[in-house]
Specification:
Helices cover 80% and strands 4% of the residues. Helix 2 packs parallel to helix 5.
Length: 111
Amino acid sequence: MEILGHQVALKENILFSITTYQIRWVFLLLSMLFDYLSTLYFVFESDPSFEANYIIRFLIEQFDVEVGVFIGKFLQLISVMTFTALDRNLGAIFLLIVILLNIWATCLNLF
């Protein structure tokens, strides 16, 4: 695919990232799972209006708590895959950033 005059191999970049950074992808999925569960705990223990992420709060208000948080995590996964498809090097850094953000969000939700 050509983007802004540069040839970008989307599928090849995603496959490269998944095969090269397998541990990071596993950590990403685990951090997403823990963030999902801790967000559910936080929202059920308090109130959806206390959720700091405006997109998640909107999704919770529009759908149900479980469905809204799940859609938010699914959108996060799509965004990570999109960034890794665009550039091999930036995709690896983006994986680490999202993993750290998920861990941080999990800690905030639980403590």
